[in-house]
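Q: A reviewer asked whether we had any structural model of the full assembly, not just the individual parts. We don't, so I'm hoping you can provide one. Inputs are below.
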Amino acid sequence: MIETIVVTGRFDVNNRMDVKERIDQALEAGADSLIIDLKGVDFMDSAAMAILVGALTACRRAGGQASLVLPEREEARRVLSLTRFDKVFPLVEG
Amino acid sequence: MISTDQLDVRVAALESLLAQHQEWLETINDLRYAPVEGQDLVLTLRHVAVETARVLKAPAALAVLDQRGLPISAAWGPLPPTTAELARFSVGPGDLSVGVREGGGMMVALGLVVEGDRATVALVDDDGTVAPRARALALPIARQAGSVLQAAWRNAESVKQALIQNEYELAAKVQSRLLAGRPVPTLEGLDIYAESRPALLVGGDFFNFAGGKGRPTFFAVGDVSGKGLPAAILVTMTLASLYSKAEFLPHPTPETILARVNEDLYPNFTDVGMFATMLVGMFNPAEQTISYANGGHSPVIHKPKGQPSRFIEADGTALGVLTESFAADRTARLGPHDLFVVASDGLVEQRNPAGEMFGYDALLAIINENASMGAEGLAIQIFERVSKFAGNAPQDDDQTLLVLRGAATPEELARLQIPAQLDAMDRIAPHVDDAIRRHAARPILSAVERYTIELAIHEACVNIVRHGYQGGQGVIEMVISGSSDELIIDIYDDGPSFDPTAAPFPDLNEPQVHGYGVFIIRELMDSVTYQPGPTRNRLRLIKKVAE
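A: Here is a predicted structure for the entire assembly that you could use as a starting point for your response.
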């Protein structure tokens, strides 16, 4: 079962635990694959990336996959390309 | 009709001749199978002397290899012939000559067959029996002994060549350490780049920095006449003299350093008929000028900002030409974006396959066109254009460049203090925007660049909160300054020090939970330096900006 998690605005050290909670809830509800929609994100930091990695590991353990919708704003995509997350995660159109 | 007695005599004589020839053949075989691999040349000569004397039944012998005018020899037996005695003979390969020795008695000289050189064996012949035997066997001995000697000589030559090649490679290593080992110093207010590309393994061009450690820093660029090992040796001596003058003269100036180095080296240079051009200079940060003294070096170019570049003529002779140096201290402006370029003539005199020279005007043009680049960028441009011009024509001479560019002085743009708490991080963005707006030089910053600055500061502050203060109370102060070259963000905290520049890079093939924060800072900023301190720590992030 695939579940979509939408994040908008800032995705950083201050609200990452909220996002993590939503991911955990989706997995508990029976999802094995996640689409993390970052289209509306305008600021991402390394703490947010840690959450993404956590999601990837959890989905793989459940036998599924975690995919990303890249942020629309070029600046926010920067961090993901710098750390090659855009190569490691499968990407999905928003 | 021959009688039985006569036949018996003849048979006996033939048998004895056969036995003798057998012995000669065996001996000649001995000569041929003499060990050559790794055998010393002198030992081989002695072997030839011993064996030839044995075959020809001579009491003593001398073997000489001329070695193109540097003879070596080996002797055997009592009172062998001397090289002086042998010098009176002149025997070609395979020839034989007989003569009287100095103290009386006879000697026989036999010329050996050796390609590219001369070798002779001289034998003592007191009873006159050696000469006829030598005559009978001259050619085979000359050939066999000759080939043994030849092989040993060739071996010795190739070992010598390998040793010379080793010496060159060693000299090249030493020289490249000397030139590259002294790091280009970081001087406030100056953007410096220096590089030398020798034509051969070792060369006569040099650049160097001397002084420092509480003394003024001097730079020197020069060119010793000639190439290769002799020039490289003189470069080493020149640098040694330069270091000692820069370090120990009580009040050094470029003029006095040049004069003292000339005094030091004049005897050595004139001894070998060589000379060295040299420019010595120093940067005066308070006045934003360069002082320099030029002993015959060219090309030297000065380009003040907004003005065309022009050559600076040397007003003194090169080192080693006159007993006194007449190059005087001169000054050139080196404020923000002014350029001072010292090159070597290997660049302007580089030829292309058609035989045309790159030329002085072309160098001026490149500097004019690329004056907005940093020192390293400009230097690379110059090297590349010369290389492209040369095509597949060889590099004839060493090519050296020293580029000095005045750096712009930064002004303070923004200053803020935030509590060391994660929820205070979103207060950073407005100040970054403010700083950019207030920047007088108004560099063009794209949205991405603005974002990267904010992100780098954000990550740095998060690290301070987490690893520095570790959740305790604290304050983070941030100062943003800018010049037309760069934006400098200083982040101060007074928690325990945590050096983000010391953290290892994450493995990008394996996504991981930790380690990206520091990686991001280092990737997004052009320079990241950490200075822990007794009262507070400073993390300095620098972003270069386009003008």
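A: Points you may want to mention in the reply: The first helix of chain B runs from residue 4 to 32. The longest strand of chain B covers residues 276-284.
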